[in-house]
Amino acid sequence: MSSWWRSVDPAPKDPILGVTEAFLADSSPNKVNVGVGAYRDDNGKPVVLECVREAERRIAGNLNMEYLPMGGSVKMVEETLKLSYGEKSEFIRDKRIAAVQSLSGTGACRLFADFQKRFHPDSQIHIPVPTWANHHNIWRDAQVPQRTFHYYHPESRGLDFAGLMDDIKNAPNGSFFLLHACAHNPTGVDPSEEQWREISHQFKAKGHFPFFDMAYQGFASGDPERDAKSIRIFLEDGHLVGIAQSYAKNMGLYGQRVGCLSVLCEDEKQAMAVKSQLQLLARPMYSNPPVHGALIVSTILSDPGLKKLWLKEVKVMADRIIGMRTALRENLEKMGSPLSWEHITNQIGMFCYSGLAPEQVDRLTSEFHIYLTRNGRISMAGVTTGNIGYLANAIHEVTKSA
C-alpha cells in the first residue's frame, strides 16, 4: 500500500505564483511585486468595484442555492454575448451561438480544447510565441497537439506581422488558431485594426478557425466595444468563431471564476447541437458552474444604472494602467537612459513586455527586491505613484550597460 505514490515527484512551481511566494518571504521594506496578474489601486491594494458591491447587496438573501443548469446562468450568458458579439447582433437574434457559462477564461479554453479534441481529433492548435503559459497546459492536457506561430518581435518589442502572416499562410488549410482578442498576454502587443483585417482575410483564404481568448475586454482601452474590435472584424468577414470570455480582470471577480465559452455556428439547429455537446463535456468535468459570480455579472449588465457605473469603473482601472505606462517611460527617459522605451506606451493592457533579459531580472530581484517573471513581463497593476521612481531607477541601473 505504501508504495502506491512512491513514484510521484513534486510538481515544478508555477513561475508566476513562485514570484509571489518569493515576494511575500522578502522582509525588505522596499520590495515591489510587479509579477502579479491582478489589478491593484495606486496604494497597491486589491479593489472591489462599487458596482459589484451594489450587485451583492441586491442579491443577498433573495435567492436560493440550487444548482445552475449544466450550461450555467442563461441571463449571464445572454448579457455576455452582447458584450462580445454586439448589443444588436444578428447572430444572437438568429440563435446561432452555442454558449455556456464557464469557470472563468481558463475553464472556457479548457472546455473548447476538449471539444476540439472530441470533434476534430486529428487537428492541432496554433499558439502564438509567446502566450500566456497556461494556454500550453490547457491544450496539452486536452491532448491536442500544438504548433506555434510568430507573434512578438524582440528587436522592435512589437508585432512580428510578417512572420505571423507567413505562418498563417503556411499552416495547413482549416487549422485552429488561438488569438488574443486584445491586451495580448504577456506582451501587451496587439495588431492594429488594419492588421486585424489582413489577418482575417488570410484566415478566410485558408479556411482557418479563429478561437479568441478575450480576458481583458474593457480593461485594455477602457472601452469594451473598442476592445472587441478584432472579433467584430472577423464576424463582419463571415467567419465562424469561438470566444473565451472572463470577468476576472474587467469586473475584478478573480475568485468567483465566472466566464463564458461561445461558438458561432451556421444555424440555430447546429448551435443547439454544439451547446448540448459542450454541456456533455462539462458534466463529468465539474457538473455545473457556480452561481454567485454569475448573479453578480447578470445583475450588473442587465441594469442600465449598474452597467453605466461598471463602464465608468473599468475605464478608471484602464486609465490608471495607461497613466503608469506613461509615467514609467517618462521616468526612464529623464534618467538619461540610452535605450528606447517607446514600447512601454505602445503596448496596452496589464502587462508590459519590458525587453529585460533574465539576468537583468535576476539583478532587479537580488539587488532591488523587485519581483517579476524572468521573461521580463512587468505587471503595470503593481506600479504605483509611490514606487514608480524606485522601479525606474532600478531598471535604469540594470540596463545602462546594455
UniProtKB/TrEMBL annotation:
Recorded family membership: Belongs to the class-I pyridoxal-phosphate-dependent aminotransferase family.
Physiological role: Important for the metabolism of amino acids and Krebs-cycle related organic acids. In plants, it is involved in nitrogen metabolism and in aspects of carbon and energy metabolism.
CDD domains: AAT_like
Keyword vocabulary terms for this entry: Aminotransferase, Pyridoxal phosphate, Transferase
Record field: transmembrane: none
Quaternary structure and interacting proteins, as annotated: Homodimer.
InterPro entries in the cross-refs: Aminotransferase_I/II_large, Asp_trans, NHTrfase_class1_PyrdxlP-BS
Domain (Aminotransferase class I/classII large) ranges: 30-395
Gene Ontology CC annotations of this record: mitochondrion
Organism, as annotated: Carya illinoinensis
EC number from the UniProt entry: 2.6.1.1
Cofactor: pyridoxal 5'-phosphate
NCBIfam families: PRK09257.1 (NF006719)
GO molecular function ontology, one term from the record: L-aspartate:2-oxoglutarate aminotransferase activity
Protein name as catalogued: aspartate transaminase
Catalytic activity of the protein: L-aspartate + 2-oxoglutarate = oxaloacetate + L-glutamate
GO biological process: amino acid metabolic process
Highest taxon listed in the record's lineage: Eukaryota
Keyword field contains Transferase: yes
